[in-house]
Structure formats: structure tokens, C-alpha cells
Specification:
Number of domains: 1
Number of strands: 0
Order of helices and strands: HHHHHH
Largest sheet: none
Distance between the termini: 89 Å
Number of helices: 6
Structural class: mainly alpha
Length: 172
């Protein structure tokens, strides 16, 4: 009788051990799947941002903003569509929905130069509206992109390069 009880206890412990190992293995598989889904969503969102940036509406907004900035248009004539795009990208990056390396690779050049071009407008907007958080994520994004540029040995833009950039954007 004791022999059977010992076998039952040993069998129960073996079953507990096997169940525990299977649960750990299942948890690891679920983590891998979750990471894969998260990576897939980040790439899809990145592609959505690329489509948005290269879309007709944004190209027109980029052209218009460049034209207005080059002509030193009055503050109240400036449209914020381009700034809104980079604000959204900065927010999504800060929240971890975008990959910083992909954002830098895709939008780094544009983000840094558009921030430089729009900086005075944004600072004036913050002052007028008494809201230092306006385009805060755009600013953080631009600073992060600039730091990445510096790590890669890329120098910040000069006023001449900025003007050339705006002329290229205007002529898209």
C-alpha cells in the first residue's frame, strides 16, 4: 500500500514538474509572439508615416510652408500641417510605437531641417498662446535626431543649407 502511495506522490510531482515546464515554455512562446506582433505593428506604423509624408496632401503642405518661410510671410499665414506631422511622429516615438532608428533613417534629415526652419514660428506660437508644450514632441524628436546625426558625424545645417532645403521643398 505504501508503495502505491509513494508512486502516486512521485507521479503527482512529476506531473506538476511537467506542467510547470510546459507553462514556462508556453509563456516564452507567447512573449515571442507578442514581440513579433509589436515589431510588425511598429513597421506598419512606420510605413503609414512614410505614406503620409510622401502623400499628395503633405507634399503640397511642405511646398506651401517652404514658400511661406522663404518669403518671410506673416506669422498668421503659416500653416502647421508639416509641424503637426513631426509632432505626431515625435509623440508616437516617445510612446514607443515607432522605432527610433527607423524614424531617424527615414525622417531624420527632414525632421532636423524642418525644426530649424519652423523653430522661430513655434517659439512665437508658444509665447502668443502662453503654452510651452506646443510642438513639444516635435522639438524632442528634432533634438533626438540631431543627437543621432552628431553620433554619426553629421554636422548641423547652416543658414545656406537651410535655404537650399526650403527651396528644394518649395519646388517639389
Amino acid at each position: 500500500m505504501i508503495y502505491i502511495e509513494i508512486l502516486l506522490v512521485a507521479g503527482t510531482w512529476a506531473l506538476v514538474w511537467v506542467t510547470f515546464r510546459m507553462a514556462r515554455q508556453q509563456a516564452a512562446i507567447l512573449r515571442e509572439q507578442s514581440d513579433a506582433v509589436r515589431a510588425d505593428l511598429r513597421v506598419r506604423l512606420q510605413l503609414t508615416f512614410i505614406d503620409r509624408f510622401d502623400g499628395e496632401r503633405m507634399i503640397e503642405a511642405r511646398k506651401d510652408l517652404a514658400r511661406l518661410l522663404l518669403s518671410k510671410a506673416p506669422h498668421d499665414q503659416i500653416e502647421e500641417t508639416v509641424m503637426d506631422f513631426f509632432e505626431d511622429a515625435g509623440l508616437f516615438l516617445r510612446r514607443g510605437y515607432l522605432d527610433e532608428e527607423l524614424v531617424w533613417s527615414t525622417f531624420g534629415f527632414y525632421g532636423v531641417l524642418w525644426w530649424t526652419a519652423c523653430r522661430n514660428y513655434i517659439l512665437e506660437e508658444r509665447k502668443q498662446k502662453n503654452d510651452p508644450t506646443l510642438f513639444e514632441d516635435f522639438e524632442i524628436l528634432a533634438n533626438n535626431l540631431t543627437r543621432r546625426d552628431a553620433k554619426r558625424g553629421l554636422v548641423s545645417s547652416s543658414p545656406i543649407k537651410l535655404e537650399e532645403f526650403l527651396e528644394e521643398e518649395r519646388d517639389l
